[in-house]
What does this fold into?
Amino acid sequence: MDLTDITTVKRVLARHGFTFSKSLGQNFITDPTVCPRMADLCGVSADAGVIEIGPGCGVLTVELAKRAAGVVAIELDARLLPVLAETLDGCRNVEVVNADVLKTDLRALIEEHFGGRPVYVCANLPYYITSPVIMYLLQSRLPVENITVMVQKEAAERLCAKVGERESGAVTVAVNYYAKAEELFSVGRESFTPAPKVDSKVIRLTPLKEPPVDIADEKRFFAVVRAAFSQRRKTAVNGLSSGLSLPKEQVTAALAAIGLPANVRAETLTMEQLSALTDALYNV
Ligand code: SAM
It folds into this structure.
């Protein structure tokens, strides 16, 4: 079955009474070049396992199944289960799990399905949960080779920005702390059914073996990062002071202690400066 042929896909979906849910981010790929390219670039090989998030009608799943030893596809929408049973009928190495990825113990899932194999994550993510999913995958320090995902173009640019660049935000700092982030290729809105209002990009996050800076208390560091970026395009002092419930004078003194002016903006701070600022704020 050609899952990039709109007529075929619509016929299968209609047979199962399926209608697209906007709130679940259901935009399915119908450009035949996109999924093979994603599956190739994620680098999965015949001895590896893949976790896919949100298989939809299975268009990416079949490409992953051709290349991997096994695929576990986590789909929240139970209405898609009979659809996937039909579209993935020929794929003996795919298991569909009906669950919310954010409530799934992925470490246990990897152990259960792929113990000992290299594992990859590859997905066209539902955009309403892009950041939570990526943060969940990175912060749980899953034993994965890489995370190759399609996300909204603007999210891709923020996720792959360098810390200290104009596009950077709290999520940029977090991604750079855990992984090497790369943009792979662009995907226009016309590549989907139904077409979303935004363009997309495929990115690859490769977890780092060691973090780029030594941080004594990660929880405290990320609280400082979130507060510093909470009022974008304004000086960091206000966000830090209100976000951390600290007097402005204390924040200004901490900035001065590491050689930064009171009017510094969060998006210009490097990872090392954010780390030093955390120590200065809490007198570590
Ligand atoms: N993989 C298909 C493709 O590329 O055409 C569909 C991708 S579509 C952008 C996102 C998919 O994620 C949908 O099938 C949707 O039902 C599913 N989804 C949404 N929220 C989810 C969640 N919390 N956990 C797992 N799957 C979810």
User: Anything to note?
Assistant: The beta strands are 28-29, 49-53, 70-75, 94-98, 119-124, 147-152, 179-187, 192-193, 200-207.
